[in-house]
From TrEMBL:
UniProtKB keywords: DNA-binding, Kinase, Phosphoprotein, Transcription, Transcription regulation, Transferase, Two-component regulatory system
Annotated GO MF terms: kinase activity; phosphorelay response regulator activity; transcription cis-regulatory region binding
CC terms in the record's Gene Ontology section: cytosol; protein-DNA complex
Alphabetized Pfam families for the sequence: Response_reg
All copies of domain Response regulatory, residue ranges: 1-120
Stated name of the protein: Multi-sensor signal transduction histidine kinase
Coiled coil stretches, renumbered: none
Modification 4-aspartylphosphate occurs at: 54
Alphabetical GO biological process terms: regulation of DNA-templated transcription
Stored PROSITE patterns: RESPONSE_REGULATORY
Organism name: Lunatimonas lonarensis
Length: 259
């Protein structure tokens, strides 16, 4: 099991507790790794079958989340978070990576051991009956929304990216206010995250990237995108379809393939 923990004393305490709780060696701790880069190296060298991750490392409040995303996208293994962040912050971040469990510091040895033992039972049953596809793991893109501040854009809720010069507004389903961030341009942003966006998203124009799965209707040279649940105000966006160029043709080609 990979252990990511930047406090060396706490890291050794966790290792010692697990050695005591699992005296038959059911869990072999790899680490602790103190940084994301060190953890990536251990992942490649030791091939652990699960991971226990802190979230904040040396003031970086999303370090463990980025590592979890890397794991999910390269070699998915079950994840358990052990975090000292305020629960409403850490838990919401952790959910984006579909972990097995989320525990808070200060931790209780028995609770940690029980969580990991149940995880091992689940994994043994899963391996006996089939595998879990990595494609089912929710994904998010992290964007800079202020100095030293990263905000997740959960792709399953992202409806629309709208650019005004270098200012980009990301509209999420059932959220009133957009997430605002800066980028050299919408085209560059789309290219930078093409791997994450190309499945469900379409670069419609210089101003708009849309989610194809959120299209409610195409009518009169406009696209209607679902914005809120039916009982809310302003339940949709209406985005104009470019009249000229390849964008219009490519859009309808994509829609014919997905509908």
């Amino acid at each position: 099991m990979l252990l990511l923990e930047d406090d060396p004393i706490l890291g050794e305490l966790i290792r010692s507790d697990l050695d005591e709780m699992f005296p038959m060696g059911q869990i072999e701790v790899v680490g602790p790794a103190f940084t994301v880069s060190e953890a990536v190296g251990l992942l490649q060298a030791e091939l652990p079958d699960m991971a226990l991750l802190d979230i904040e490392l040396s003031g970086d409040r999303t370090a463990g989340i980025r590592l979890a995303q890397h794991i999910n996208q390269t070699r998915p293994i079950p994840l358990v978070f052990l975090s000292g962040l305020p629960r409403n912050e850490g838990f919401e971040l952790a959910k984006l990576t579909a972990p097995y469990s989320y525990l808070t510091k200060p931790y209780q040895s028995q609770q940690l051991a029980d969580t990991l033992e149940l995880l091992m039972v689940r994994e043994n049953q899963r391996k006996a009956g089939g595998t879990v596809s990595a494609s089912t793991i929710p994904k998010a893109i992290f964007v800079s929304t202020g100095y030293g501040e990263l905000t997740p854009l959960p792709l399953d809720k992202l409806v629309l990216l709208e650019a005004d010069g270098k200012i980009i507004r990301a509209y999420l389903q059932d959220e009133e206010r957009p997430i605002v961030f800066t980028s050299p341009g919408l085209k560059n942003f789309f290219m930078d995250y093409q791997r994450e966006l190309e499945g469900d998203f379409f670069h419609l124009s210089r101003k708009h990237v849309i989610s194809l799965s959120k299209i409610q209707q195409v009518k009169d040279n406009h696209i209607r995108l679902v914005r809120h649940s039916p009982d809310s105000k302003h339940t949709y966006f209406e985005i104009p379809i470019p009249k000229n160029g390849d964008s219009r043709r490519l859009l309808f080609s994509r829609l014919r393939g997905s509908w």
